[in-house]
Design goal:
With about 90 residues, this protein is mainly beta. The chain is built from no helices and six strands. The strands form two sheets. It has a four-stranded antiparallel β-sheet, with no helix packed on it.
Length: about 90
């Protein structure tokens, strides 16, 4: 992905690459795989567990009338509000 347009000065110093704003359609495709790990806690509404493995994905991003496919690993999912979620993917290094 292109890193030529800065997002803002509020971007954290710990990030490896500069961010920029992008409002475009995205599709996340999950690779068929299985993850095994160790449970941390369990309730009637969910479970928290940890793995050493990665959840491999392919992201399709539409930008300037062109669709690109980029592979990577899903690194975070966060419920923002109600059913809205934020998903973070770390792209494979070229």
């Amino acid at each position: 992905m292109q890193d030529d347009q800065p997002l803002s000065t509020s971007t954290s110093d710990r990030r490896r690459a500069q961010r920029r704003t992008l409002e475009s359609p995205v599709r996340l495709n999950l690779s068929e795989q299985q993850l095994s790990g160790q449970a941390s806690n369990l309730s009637s509404s969910g479970i928290l567990f940890f793995t050493e493995g990665e959840l491999r994905v392919t992201v399709e991003v539409e930008e300037n009338g062109e669709t690109r496919q980029v592979t990577g690993s899903l690194v975070r999912c966060e419920r923002i509000q109600g059913e809205r979620r934020g998903w973070a993917v770390e792209f494979d290094r070229s």
